[in-house]
Amino acid sequence: MKFIVPAAAALALLTPAAFAQTATAPAPAAKPAAAKFNLDTPIETLVGDPKAKAVLDADLPGIATHPSYEFFKSMSLRAVQPMSDGKLTDEMLKKVETDLAAIM
User: Fold this and answer.
1) Helix crossing, 90-101 with 50-59: angle to 10°?
2) What letter would DSSP give residue 13?
3) Rounded distance, CA 80 to CA 85, Å?
4) CB neighbours (10 Å) of residue 28?
5) What is each CA distance from 52 to 29, 66, 82, 88, 102, in whole angstroms?
6) Which of 18, 37, 74, 90 is the most buried (most CB within 10 A)?
7) What stretch of H or E contains 43?
8) pLDDT in 10s for each residue of the chain, 104 residues
9) How far apart are the first and last CA of the chain?
10) What's the predicted TM-score (pTM) here?
């Protein structure tokens, strides 16, 4: 009995923090890098970057020299598509999107 009382007193003095684990939390997983350009990027921004312009020149030849370029240059490809009378198809945009995502 003499042993139980001092042991109980010693346990009562210990704080819950003394029982807490001190292992460090794992580092958060690295997020994949977001694409620098996408279909919502203004067209003039795409034309201003050599790599993005090369994608546009390959996938949408003549877009940077189109007679209405000054009108739509501040818009994105996604915004221009409905006004293109079907000339800017979903397949074309998907190709551009894939190629833009490859730019690092």
Assistant:
1) 150
2) H
3) 10
4) 6
5) 29, 17, 22, 17, 10
6) 37
7) helix 43-48
8) 555 555 555 545 555 555 555 666 666 666 556 679 999 999 999 999 999 999 999 999 999 999 999 999 999 999 999 999 999 999 999 999 999 999 97
9) 73
10) 0.67
